Amino acid sequence: MFQAFFPFVSLFFRIREDREKVTGYVENVIPNYLPDDFKRMFRVSRETYSKLLGYVSRSEEFALRNPNRGRSQIPLEKILLMILWYFGTQESAQSISDRFGVQQSTFYKYQEKVMDYFCNILCSRFIVWPKEDEKNEMFRNFQSKKGFPGVIGALDGSHIPITPPKDRQREYINRKGFHSVVLQAVCRPDKRFTHIYCGWPGRVHDARVYRNSDIYSNLYELCGHNHILGDGAYPNSRCLLTPYRDTGHLTAPQKLYNKIHSSTRCIIENSFGLLKGRFRRLQHINIYNIEKVVKVIVSCCVLHNMCIMNTDELDDIYDDHVDDNPDCPPQYRIEDAEGKLKRILITRQLSS
Fold first, then answer.
1. What was the pLDDT predicted at 335?
2. Which of 3, 42, 60, 71 has its CA 20 to 30 A from that of 306?
């Protein structure tokens, strides 16, 4: 027994010795990055990073302790760069800790603090439903694309690959055959999210996720006389217009409606592609704790909106969209007379 144990201990310490932490990366290397190199590494521009630093630095949660007491605190600049690196890569926590010269436990501590700040403070600031005066501008922007009137948002769900909880793996297998949670979102014409709702297991149909979200119960108040667009996975209603079900007997005006509807609605798919392309952690979140998975997703959505508001563009688009949802299940396909009439009137308007 002891003969087997001591070689293991020796190997363990040899591995620990091989893991050398990087010294001076934040202090000496990053300041020399050109703007494009900084954005490529951290997935945001220096300007966006500086604004984010300004927001976080005003939080009491990250206020510097008395320097005369205890160990020196890690600079906030290093903390944010470390977490941005996490969001932008698939690198392990161990590797990130070594890169930034901190203990792995320290990385986890600040990862939790930063994500809590994003979810509890910044989310309500940057992911907001449009005000009345903004709605007028938004439906004009949507209508200028393909002519579809009255649109103030596009709705869809996206699968975020995860490592599932060990005792609930089957719940998270989606129709594509991998484990995921669903991110439901509504976006503006500029790809900013105006509403997000996430955390449901990947096997759950989009219609059920929508039915359980707060936007479902508040949609009439949020939209007024306007509407958002969703694909055939959702129930058609006065404030959520979907395409006609293609049973092989659609009329020419109905086909035209579907085509313009799809061309207008696809902005949400582009938003998801931009989100996952910029923050590559969302291409697979290797965390068992679903609550923490949700915090990662929400934090990335907040950063996504911040970047767009700061005209911080990135060309990396991640295209994993597959129309994997069947039509809206019968139990959610409630006949909405107002929605049916509204769709008919818009169909006539588009074909006139």
1. 67
2. 60
Q: What size, in residues, is the chain?
A: 352
Q: Which whole-number Å values give the CA distances from 35 to 43, 53, 278, 306, 341, in the listed order? A: 11, 17, 16, 18, 52
Phi and psi at 310, nearest 5°, equal -95, 15
Q: Give pLDDT, residue 66.
A: 52
pLDDT, position 68: 53
Averages of pLDDT over runs of 10 residues in the chain (352 residues) are 42 48 88 96 97 93 62 88 98 96 96 97 97 94 96 98 95 95 98 98 96 96 97 95 94 97 97 96 96 98 98 83 62 80 97 92
**Distance (Å, whole) CA 82 – CA 111:** 8
